[in-house]
Inverse folding.
């Protein structure tokens, strides 16, 4: 299956810090995404999932990569001052990025078609006004399921609903034929029916175009049903990497278990839903001690003082639990 | 219940929003909304954004006027209320909003917000009794360990939603309308507030209307549910019947789509 393939995106002990703060907000992140893999990142708000994704691709103005190595397609990205420029070169070519809010990510005063032909020009050097570029743009709109793509080509973003706008954002990202699509909460602003259609569109595209996907969301149940593997972030720490099929099937990291147990999913009764006591810890916890210890039923003294283990990247899965919970049997 | 008059009765209620110049508006309206809520019932209104469910909540709480049809609360027509009756209505019906960041007064300590509700709606309590009552409410919503002499910004989103619920309960309402009370909260906090509602429903025998897009809230908390789509009620019935055997095509598609 996928085992033999070299990783497409590889993070090794990556940490991210805000430009005006010394302490890293996200730290010790090691994970790898293989070509064609659909990889999910889950975390509550403030867990650092969006900060991490935006910063490693140089999209965050107020944060930088403070440590660790990032490789894409076997090539290591330069560090420190040269990182952002290198990441920016990946974006729009090998990496497509879909932000959360479809209402602010399109240019409201530019026709939809031009926003796509511009992307084609920038990514592939196709002349913006050529008939062939126009054909290609209309083709891309059709591929993401926009009805009457010729008409849509000449319309403005505000003439579309939220779901259709998010499809247009996808069309722009996909027109560049990236190897990796990074989608940051792409369906949070959308209705349930539209959400499922957009997620299915991503998955189908991944299958048909050998596209790897990094899907960031707070919705563990959505990921469990959609992706291959899930990384679980909490307090800016990487706590768990699990195969989706294992969620609910074998013991996982206590936080992943707790997160799964509080979802009121179909078929669960009230008695089967258990909330997590206390409040979520924000990003920036550091690497000393487990950020979840204050809410974890298993926590002992070591959990608060020991250094959190790093993912050595050897296995498919990983658990950072200091008590060894959730390690693959 | 015993006298046979429903607590809330909407009959053929309609509402139009007029277009404004230069504002791109989706023409949006409610058509022929009829629903009843009996005393002691927990009723859900399920719908997606733009379905009109929040407008229904606002009409029931008299925050929005309606154009035609009738609304009777405990048998009384809501179009003709005197000032005194209007105030009395406010003591009987309370609402909890989606956004706990916008619904609390940022310039009052949460204790003062609670005390204000008690001063207005529970006349005849001494200051000592009001303070004791406020402390009891704080305890009841699970904030017993927190100091209430702080401002809303000192509390997290989940805690603020608990405060908003405590403030609504301070009035001792007969009907509590909750407009998406969970959707701005994190999953782990949603489960906590869900547990709080379960406890309140059990202990206080409240009549509650839950407005939500969240099928699981309906399934877990509501006796009956109304499903709304594009300003109309498309289906209604006992929650288990509607969610397990939807008759309407839209309901079926919605249930199918939920993760």
């Amino acid at each position: 299956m996928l085992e033999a393939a070299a990783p497409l995106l590889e993070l090794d002990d990556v940490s991210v810090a805000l430009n005006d703060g010394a302490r890293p907000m996200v730290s010790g992140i090691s994970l790898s995404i293989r070509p064609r893999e659909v990889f999910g990142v889950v975390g509550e708000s403030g867990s650092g999932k969006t900060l991490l994704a935006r910063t490693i691709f140089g999209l965050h103005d107020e944060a930088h990569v403070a440590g660790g190595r990032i490789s894409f397609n076997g090539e290591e990205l330069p560090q420190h001052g040269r990182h952002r420029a290198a990441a920016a070169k990946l974006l729009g070519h090998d990496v497509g990025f879909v932000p959360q809010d479809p209402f602010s990510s399109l240019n409201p005063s530019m026709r939809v078609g031009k926003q796509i032909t511009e992307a084609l020009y920038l990514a592939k050097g196709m002349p913006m006004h050529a008939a062939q570029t126009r054909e290609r743009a209309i083709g891309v709109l059709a591929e993401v399921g926009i009805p009457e793509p010729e008409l849509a080509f000449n319309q403005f973003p505000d003439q579309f609903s939220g779901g259709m706008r998010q499809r247009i954002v996808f069309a722009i990202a996909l027109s560049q034929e990236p190897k990796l699509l990074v989608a940051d909460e792409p369906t949070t602003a959308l209705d349930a029916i539209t959400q499922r259609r957009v997620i299915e569109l991503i998955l189908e595209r991944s299958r048909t175009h050998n596209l790897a996907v990094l899907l960031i969301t707070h919705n563990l149940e959505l990921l469990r049903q959609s992706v291959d593997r899930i990384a679980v972030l909490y307090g800016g720490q990487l706590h768990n990497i699990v195969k989706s099929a294992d969620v609910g099937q074998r013991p996982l990291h206590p936080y992943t278990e707790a997160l799964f147990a509080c979802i009121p999913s179909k078929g669960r009764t009230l008695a089967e839903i258990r909330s997590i006591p206390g409040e979520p810890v924000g990003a920036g916890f550091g690497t000393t001690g487990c950020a979840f210890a204050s809410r974890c039923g298993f926590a002992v003294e070591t959990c608060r003082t020991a250094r959190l283990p790093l993912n050595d990247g050897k296995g498919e899965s990983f658990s950072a639990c200091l008590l060894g919970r959730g390690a693959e049997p | 219940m015993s006298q046979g008059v429903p607590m809330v009765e909407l009959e053929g209620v309609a509402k139009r929003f007029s277009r404004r110049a230069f504002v791109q508006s989706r023409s949006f309206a409610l058509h022929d909304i009829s629903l009843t809520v009996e005393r002691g019932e927990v009723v859900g209104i399920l719908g997606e954004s733009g379905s009109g469910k929040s407008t229904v909540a606002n009409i029931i709480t008299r925050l929005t006027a309606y154009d035609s049809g009738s609304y009777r609360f405990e048998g009384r027509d809501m179009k003709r209320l005197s000032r005194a009756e209007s105030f009395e209505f406010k003591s009987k019906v309370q609402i909890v909003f989606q956004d706990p960041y916008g619904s609390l007064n940022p310039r009052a300590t949460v204790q003062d917000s609670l005390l204000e509700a008690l001063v207005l709606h529970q006349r005849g309590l001494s200051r000592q009794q009001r303070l004791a009552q406020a402390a009891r409410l704080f305890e009841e919503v699970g904030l017993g360990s927190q100091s209430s002499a702080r401002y809303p910004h000192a509390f997290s989103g989940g805690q603020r939603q608990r405060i908003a619920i405590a403030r609504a309960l301070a009035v001792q309402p007969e009907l509590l309308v909750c407009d998406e009370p969970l959707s701005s909260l994190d999953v782990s906090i949603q489960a906590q507030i869900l547990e709080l509602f379960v406890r309140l429903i059990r202990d206080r025998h409240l009549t509650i209307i839950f407005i939500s897009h969240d099928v699981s809230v309906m399934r877990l908390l509501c006796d009956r549910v109304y499903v709304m789509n594009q300003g109309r009620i498309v289906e209604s019935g006992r929650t288990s019947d509607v969610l397990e055997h939807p008759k309407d095509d839209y309901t079926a598609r919605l249930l199918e789509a939920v993760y």
About this structure: The mean pLDDT of chain B is 90. The longest helix of chain B spans residues 187-204. The two ends of chain B are 37 Å apart (CA to CA). The beta strands of chain B are 8-16, 29-37, 42-46, 68-73, 76-77, 93-96, 175-179, 207-212, 224-229, 232-238.
